[in-house]
Backbone:
């Protein structure tokens, strides 16, 4: 058979003609890449299907063509890392049974930014769907979800509409599939007005020797390619390419077609079916004989060529064998559509009947959802080529390795210029002297980026599966008991996991390197404050247009920051993605390295919450305040208030925090050892709103007050509201000497702040004295009022 269908020869055509062709078929190639495809890679005129395929596989979303070089500096291995950032999800060992068998956590972290900005509900829902399928394809049972969301100005109707659609979409998929929400983050900032960020983390569990891989195993020549799930339609066509260009407001309606359509109930059914099949394969000792991959970006094309080429093979796909939802779809659309709720297996022929019967008969896919089924649509071949046949014509014939390699760029970049603060640490602008610190505290507690996240968390199911021990918002990390059933050996049932997500747009806007460092540091301190040891991080690196040297420089600085902090804190990066082109006509988003941290507890019962528990406890501070309030919500508050009264006001630039890794590690080890030895009654990390807000939040759950004093050489507000990393601890006075000895052994220097008190008051000597009720009311109502 010859390559005859829809060939488009670039030879002799003008750049305008080529550009019109690429736009007409929604092909994500630049003019130079299109020419490279014809004249250097294929050395012949490509078909439309080949142009589309290389546009998808060569996109930033799939090939990391601008970022690969910079991601290589990340630590992706560690003593307990089973699988680093190589496949659909990372895998880290968290327990062993008495037979020495390992039990693992599977971690996936993805973004769905552009789709969620255009169609919030569907964009966010399909982001969750794809994320949990990544866990499933590794053989894992999905046990937890988290999301970290960024939206524009909360005062605008557009932001509230997008927020509501996104949260509804996450709930509309996560709740029906029966996976609890364990953690999440939420920030509003004008920098995300035209480019919201929707990042999702999923956790799964599996026995280490039951791990599945997303590539064809050795000896796979002649394996069947089995497509499972929803019938293919045109939804989501061009989604990966769409995610790799700036958002254009004028193409809003056109871009809607690039967003997939979710079906959460079919998604749940497929998760159950895939889990049951993984168990069958394990019982047969055949789990290592298959490859299993989610159909995400690029649909059938990308799944088939990646599952083949990663194993060192080629593949042949027969388009006419693909089940579809509509007649007349062009072959290249069937090949590259990103229809949701689909998987692909590379299966040895002797297992193929079992897999087909499992889905079509045991789990009755055709009866559960119209048109859904499992079908053989091609084969793995010893030939190193990727071929696609439609009717009696070949529409793709290319070296498989060239398809998956994509394009590689060494983008020029300019290093960011970080403005130094003219204001020394510990001081505030001269015009701030008339401010009242107590009033500022109430304003911070009611700020949309500090106030209670209950309006968000209450939209999600937090207790389904019966594994959540501490819900999001009650501790600095959600706490999970993943193995707490008779399905697992008794000796590992007390093992606990924690999950947290972090990123601060204000810090990253001021200094993209430090902002990335602090995102990792806060995920570390949140994890430690829950009593858990950080085991691994994942990241979604969301930035602007890499073709602009200034934007590329922000990305490079962010990568350096993440790599540095993970190296210094000995935490490997095992999963994540890169999302570039988060930019519109109004500009780029703030640099946004979205970090998630997985922590482990030997016993989930030793997890710590942030609530004061007893009167007359001692309140200690670990990591003294520096008076560096730059990049904080307080700095934003100062500037917002002053700008409101003077349109010509120039924003003040406060001194940014500094990170001393030695002191941070010493403080972290003190908290972990103190939790393990039962010396800590409560712990809270210091983040948005600083020490002042942290003290308030510790009093809210039990209405148990505190009276503290702060010995500072400058303005108290500069120290109380700065957001440098640190911990506030509640210590049993009878164990104080044990705690101090422990801290001394670790090289940490705790500072005694004061005590907890029975009276429902929050007292900072000489600064404020307010009732818990006043503070808590402001905190509880702050976000809720603004979302109405």
Residues:
């Amino acid at each position: 058979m010859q390559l005859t269908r829809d060939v488009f020869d670039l030879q002799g055509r003008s750049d305008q003609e080529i550009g019109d062709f690429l736009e007409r078929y929604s092909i994500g190639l630049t003019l130079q890449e299109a020419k490279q495809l014809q004249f250097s890679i294929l050395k012949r005129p490509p078909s439309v299907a080949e142009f589309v395929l290389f546009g998808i596989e060569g996109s930033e979303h799939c090939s990391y063509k601008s970022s690969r070089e910079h991601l290589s500096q990340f630590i992706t291995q560690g003593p307990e890392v089973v699988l680093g950032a190589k496949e659909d999800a990372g895998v880290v060992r968290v327990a062993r049974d008495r037979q020495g068998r390992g039990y693992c956590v599977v971690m996936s972290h993805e973004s769905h930014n552009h789709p969620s900005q255009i169609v919030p509900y569907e964009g966010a829902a399909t982001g969750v769907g794809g994320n949990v399928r990544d866990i499933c394809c590794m053989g894992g049972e999905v046990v937890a979800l988290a999301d970290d969301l960024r939206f524009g100005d909360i005062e605008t109707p557009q932001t509230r509409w997008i927020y509501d659609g996104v949260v509804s979409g996450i709930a509309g998929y996560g709740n029906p599939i029966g996976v609890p929400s364990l953690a999440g983050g939420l920030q509003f900032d004008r920098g995300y007005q035209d480019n919201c960020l929707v990042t999702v983390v999923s956790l799964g569990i599996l026995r280490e020797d039951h791990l599945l891989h997303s590539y064809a195993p050795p000896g796979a020549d002649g394996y069947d390619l089995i497509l499972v799930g929803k019938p293919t339609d045109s939804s989501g066509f061009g989604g990966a390419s769409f995610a790799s260009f700036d958002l254009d407001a004028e193409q809003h309606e056109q871009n809607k077609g690039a967003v997939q359509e979710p079906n959460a109930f079919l998604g749940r059914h497929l998760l159950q079916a895939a889990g049951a099949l993984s168990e069958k394969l394990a019982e047969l000792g055949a789990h290592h004989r298959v490859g299993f991959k989610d159909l995400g970006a690029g649909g059938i094309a990308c799944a088939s060529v990646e599952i083949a080429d990663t194993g060192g093979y080629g593949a042949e796909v027969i388009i006419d064998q693909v089940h579809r939802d509509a007649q007349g779809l062009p072959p290249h659309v069937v090949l590259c559509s990103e229809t949701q709720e689909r998987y692909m297996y590379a299966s040895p022929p002797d297992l193929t009947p079992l897999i087909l019967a499992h889905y079509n008969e045991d789990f009755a896919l055709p009866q559960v959802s119209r048109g859904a089924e499992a079908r053989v649509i091609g084969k793995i071949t010893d030939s190193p080529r990727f071929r696609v046949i439609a009717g009696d014509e070949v529409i793709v014939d290319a070296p498989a390795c060239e398809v998956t390699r994509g394009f590689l760029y060494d983008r020029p970049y300019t290093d960011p210029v970080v403005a130094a603060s003219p204001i020394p640490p510990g001081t505030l602008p001269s015009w701030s002297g008339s401010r009242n610190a107590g009033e500022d505290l109430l304003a911070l507690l009611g700020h949309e980026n500090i106030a209670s996240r209950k309006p968000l968390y209450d939209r999600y199911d937090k207790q389904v599966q019966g594994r959540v021990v501490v819900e999001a918002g009650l501790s600095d990390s959600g706490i999970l008991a993943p193995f707490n059933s008779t399905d697992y050996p008794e000796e590992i049932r007390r093992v606990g996991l924690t999950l947290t997500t972090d990123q601060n747009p204000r810090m990253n806007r001021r200094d993209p390197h430090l902002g990335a460092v602090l995102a990792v540091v806060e995920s570390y301190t949140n994890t430690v404050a829950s009593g858990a040891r950080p085991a691994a991080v994942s990241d979604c690196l969301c930035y602007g247009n890499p073709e602009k040297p200034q934007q590329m420089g922000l990305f490079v600085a962010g990568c350096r920051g993440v790599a540095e902090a993970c190296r210094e804190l000995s935490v490997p990066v095992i999963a994540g993605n890169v999302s570039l082109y988060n930019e519109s006509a109004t500009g780029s988003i703030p640099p946004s390295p979205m970090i998630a941290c997985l922590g482990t507890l030997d016993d989930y019962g030793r997890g710590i919450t942030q609530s004061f528990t007893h009167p007359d406890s001692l309140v200690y501070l670990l990591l003294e305040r520096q008076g560096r309030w730059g990049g904080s919500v307080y700095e934003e508050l100062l500037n917002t208030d002053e700008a409101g009264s003077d349109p010509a006001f120039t924003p003040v630039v406060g001194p940014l925090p500094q990170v001393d890794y030695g002191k941070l590690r010493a403080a972290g080890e003190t908290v972990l050892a103190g939790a393990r030895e039962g010396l800590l009654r409560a712990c809270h990390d210091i983040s948005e709103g600083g020490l002042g807000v942290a003290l308030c939040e510790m009093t809210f759950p039990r209405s148990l007050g505190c009276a503290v004093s702060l010995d500072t050489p400058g303005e108290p507000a500069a120290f109380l509201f700065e957001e440098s990393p640190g911990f506030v601890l509640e210590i049993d006075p009878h164990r104080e000497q044990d705690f101090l000895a422990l801290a001394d052994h670790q090289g940490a220097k705790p500072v005694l702040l004061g005590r907890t008190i029975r009276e429902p008051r929050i007292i900072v000597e000489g600064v404020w004295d307010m009732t818990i009720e006043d503070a808590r009311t402001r905190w509880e109502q702050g976000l809720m009022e603004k979302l109405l």
Notes: The chain has a mean pLDDT of 94. The first helix runs from residue 15 to 24.
